[in-house]
Amino acid sequence: MAEIAEGDGPKGTFDAQHLKAIHGHIFQDIYEWAGHTRDESPVVDGQRVEPIGNLSKGGTSFLHGSRIEMGLDEAFRPIRNPEILRGSSGEQFAEIAGKVLAELNYVHPFREGNGRAQEAMLASIGREYGHEVDFTVITKPRMIDASIATTNEPSSPAMKHIFEDAIDPNRQEAIRAAFVDLEMRGENAFEHNVRTARPGEQISGQVLGHDIRVASLVTDHGIVAVDRADLPERLPDDDTVITFTARSDFSRLSRPDQVRNADNPPVERMSP
């Protein structure tokens, strides 16, 4: 996995064969069937195993095994022409990458290890076209929720928002600040759905923590990190619910007067 993250993994043309090669590379020392999709019959412990047709997890059903080849072809359709990503903006990349990952999640081509292989694949695609994808700020509950949302409603922007957060250093900082707030409360941050707010989004929640740059709120749908400038100057010192409309795209955090350095050190985060 580390080799792939550094760009030293299997090379390919970002298609089904490339995904299989990545899966095989990651899991070669764990599964005899690494690199084989679940519609295949690889040999395991000297015995040929049967393909897996029906597959479901947590109440979500995935594409039938007999249609995996077709499903993978459809999943990679948005990037079949590699030029479509060349020179792409962050928003354009997030839109396309979100569609690819949403489809791959539904196809669920491997018996196990789908998430790691797919994330490695999308990170490789991002690197090839100038977008560093950092999945360390994307928690498992958030990825599961996004997968369910896009399976139930393909037009859901949930997966696009994941990539917007994963490629934007300012949004990454905001999410990591929310992680700190959770940890200060004795919570495991990676057991929560943690995301950033979108401009124009109305948010209601209780302030979890804040400093002069970023605040985090507990909402009915998880933890939301927001630009502190979007909130009232005076925040409640208890669990009062506040409602506001997010305005920032977090670009303010990278302005010269906002960047943290020796003359502008980090400020201790506060909680109600």
UniProtKB/TrEMBL annotation:
Kindly state which reaction or reactions the protein catalyses.
L-threonyl-[protein] + ATP = 3-O-(5'-adenylyl)-L-threonyl-[protein] + diphosphate; L-tyrosyl-[protein] + ATP = O-(5'-adenylyl)-L-tyrosyl-[protein] + diphosphate
**Single GO molecular-function term?**
ATP binding
Q: Name one GO biological process term.
A: regulation of cell division
Q: Which SUPFAM superfamilies match?
A: Fic-like (SSF140931)
Q: Where is this region: Disordered?
A: 252-272
Top-level division of the source organism's lineage? Bacteria
Q: What are the alphabetically sorted keywords of the record?
A: ATP-binding, Nucleotide-binding, Nucleotidyltransferase, Transferase
What EC number(s) does the entry state? Answer: 2.7.7.108
InterPro entries in the record: Fido (IPR003812), Fido-like_dom_sf (IPR036597)
- Domain Fido span(s) in chain numbering: 14-165
- Keyword ATP-binding included in the entry's annotation: yes
Report whether Transferase shows up as a keyword of the record.
yes
Q: What is this protein called?
A: protein adenylyltransferase
Source species of the chain:
Brucella intermedia GD04153
